[in-house]
Amino acid sequence: MENRAYPLFVGLFTLVLGSALVACLWWFSGGAQDTTRYLIISSGSVSGLNPQAAVRYRGVRVGKVIDVDLRDTREVYIQIRVDSDIPVTQGTRARIGVQGLTGQGFVMLDDDGRDGAPPKRLPGSGIPMIAMEEGPAGMGAAEGAQALIGRLQRTTERIDRLLSDENIDRLDKTLQHLATSSANLEKALEQSAALAQDMRRFASPENAERLAGTLESVRAMSSKLSPAVDEFRTAVARVNAAGTRIDKLGGDVQASLTADTLPRMNQLLLELQTNTQQLSRVLDEVERSPQLLLLGKQQQAPGPGETRP
């Protein structure tokens, strides 16, 4: 009995576990939600769009892609599953977007609300269809990836120009200048700290009292020097007056010398010159006739034709 019960329990456990796995798969696949399947037909490239990709309605995730199939060389059939409460109408348009830098594609749905009629169905299958937005607004994933690659390429070129050897040398020099400036700034800060410390010592209460006492002494000395300064100013005024008088007296003396003394001195010099000439003649006569000192000057005999006086 026991040998038969063991395989029975194993079989029941396997059935329960398999049922649980199926239920989980059904739950995670969206079977527990009320969803609607739609078909999108694209005539362009859908590179980057894979099954299980997200479907977003105005930016909000509302479903996923369940199949991407190439029916012929011109059209790609994209089957999506969307929540049934999403208002999909004939005015709803789909386009392929690119997510981030990975290039993973997703389906974007949007509706301007102009046409509220139910979407058309594919003949033969009855699957409702969503029109693919064509033109620049409906750019496919490949075009979006190419645009992204173009932007990345331009960004890379700019980074290359930014990190060129010349710019790196400039950056190196700038960093060296900054290091030098930092060292100088550090020295200046140290000197400022020392100066601030000296200022603190200078501004100490003892120095403040000493400075106050010095200022009081200077004030008292200034008050004492004020009379002396007044007297000095008076003496200077007197000296100026005496100088004026001396200048006047000098002018009077100069005028007196010019008008009276100098003519007299000139006359005296003339008389002295005359007397000197007379004395010189007397000395010459004495030298020629020394007897003149004893006999005096004798009258000479009259010459021929002269009479004695």
Provide the fold topology.
Layout lengths: L1 H27 L6 E8 L11 E4 L2 E11 L5 E8 L8 E8 L4 E8 L17 E4 L8 H22 L2 H38 L2 H84 L3 H4 L14
Parallel strand pairs: 1-7, 2-6, 5-7
Antiparallel strand pairs: 1-4, 2-3, 3-4, 5-6
What does this structure look like?
- The protein is α/β, with parallel strands linked by helices and 309 residues long.
- The protein has a domain at 32-137.
- 57% of the residues lie in helices and 17% in strands.
- It contains five helices and seven strands.
- It has helices at 2-28, 141-162, 165-202, 205-288, 292-295; strands at residues 35-42, 54-57, 60-70, 76-83, 92-99, 104-111, 129-132.
- Strands 1-4-3-2-6-5-7 form a seven-stranded mixed beta barrel.
- A hairpin with a 4-residue loop joins strand 5 and strand 6.
- The longest helix is centred in the C-terminal third of the chain and has 84 residues, at 205-288.
What percent strand?
Answer: 15-25%
Whole-angstrom Rg:
68 Å
Termini gap:
223 Å
User: Count the strands?
Assistant: 7
Q: Low-confidence segments, ≥5 residues, pLDDT <50?
A: 135-140
Mean pLDDT: 77
Strands ordered across the widest β-sheet: 1-4-3-2-6-5-7
Major sheet: size, sense and barrel closure?
Answer: 7 strands, mixed, barrel
Q: Any idea what the shape is?
A: rod-shaped
**Protein structure class:** alpha/beta
Number of separate helices: 5
Sequence of secondary-structure elements: HEEEEEEEHHHH
Q: Helix proportion of residues, in percent?
A: 55-70%
Transmembrane segments: 6-28
Keywords: Membrane, Transmembrane, Transmembrane helix
Domain Mce/MlaD: 39-110
InterPro entries: Mce/MlaD (IPR003399)
